[in-house]
Prior knowledge:
Arsenate_reductase-like, Thioredoxin-like_sf, Glutaredoxin, ArsC family transcriptional regulator, 8 helices
Amino acid sequence: MVTIYGIKNCDTVRKALKWFDAKGVENKLHDFRTDGIDAKTIEGWLDEVGGTVLINKRGPSYRNLTDADKATLEQGGAAAAAILAANPTVIKRPVVDFGTTRTVAYDEKRWAELAGL
């Protein structure tokens, strides 16, 4: 089972859900807004993929952060994970969890490879 983390009304997340459904890959959506997300999970993602990949600096959620929070995000670690947990829309979407590997953003080629398609 693949877990797709994001927001249900995000176009890219909806596109990812449709892609996995069309390929017959069992999946579930974990919506940041309704299901929440804990800092420990985010810290693991930061360790695995890095802040450069995980943090969406182009969106309004990032622009609305304080300069101090933005500086903390640059440093990474538990403090950055806590900021992202409190502001999950700053996380680039979707984060797709294959169990042992995670991908960030829309990537059909990588998903097909990881799903064994």
